[in-house]
Amino acid sequence: MHLFSPDACPRLIVKIGSALLVDADGAIRRQWLDGIAADIATRVRAGQQIAVVSSGAIALGARRLNLPKGGRASLEDAQAAAATGQIALSQVWAEVLAANRLTAAQILLTLDDLEDRRRYLNAAATLGRLLTLGVVPIINENDSVATAEIRFGDNDRLAARVAQAADAQGVLLLSDIDGLYDRNPALPDAAHIPQVDRIDTRIEAMADRGSASGMGSGGMVSKIEAARIAASAGVSLAIASGRIDRPLSADARHTIFLPEKRTRARKAWLAGRLTAKGAITVDAGAAKALTEGRSLLAIGATGVRGLFFRGDLVTIEGPDGPIARGLAEYDNAETQRLIGTRSEDQGDILGYAPRAALVHRNHMVLL
Questions:
Q1: Is the CB of residue 125 less than 8 Å from the CB of residue 189?
Q2: What is the distance between the alpha carbons of residues 358 and 177, in angstroms, rounded to a whole number?
């Protein structure tokens, strides 16, 4: 994939879907994986640092445990399959990389590991150190403990968040499709989209839900969500087919999503977070002020939703929809009491000196 060459992209995150690693019978596609490992070794020798977000644990575990529906019949089955399959997945990665004189490391992440600021920084430091040592981290969601409420849900978004934490320049999603099409690619008149400059409602409408293989948890919707996370962190993201031999060295068709201007690390982390605890609605005047770089003042707020505490992530919504995300300076009850009030009145309402804003601009990112 020449657009992510080592000289142009010093640090790259490669995501590999379940259907590429595991065949329909639940066995590892070893010959294909040997080719991927050889490609990774070539890139590492050329100076590129690579981390791999690898699916496949649930599919592998389901085969070993003889579980129905690929291990996804229930949450308990998925967790058991993941626990069993992850050890096999990490072993095969260690073997194919060792055959190319590379060392593998395993990192299992939960949603909270990248949503909590302190744990995010710890994960980022570990990733950075492994990559500078020439190790190839093999990363997956910790599905054996994740639940529906605390999970990424797909490895596309996980790859984008890992790229952000690793300060990577590119993400390559290898999948069973060679990019974005203007409609379902099964239709005869579907047109391939080689480059996306900006993700808008037109691009979102092109996404076709579902995974073609039935093994994975993501489809084009999740890939576009991943591209949005990557773009907000200043990271390029490409979607390419892994249904070819040596996809990391092939000059094959793909779709690339161009990044936005790289932003400060804390704001990039905020933009990439997936779970807001609540929402604050604002009037048109406040919405305009936010787009001009102002903090959210109580006088412009019109309502509060959700249960949140000081420091939790909240979405700020204007008359036309979500505008920004930021860290709340008050809990939901205090925020509700301050709705529509002026700063000089807030001390009497709260019984203590008020803070400068409901959400400060230094702890906010526009969407």
A1: no
A2: 44
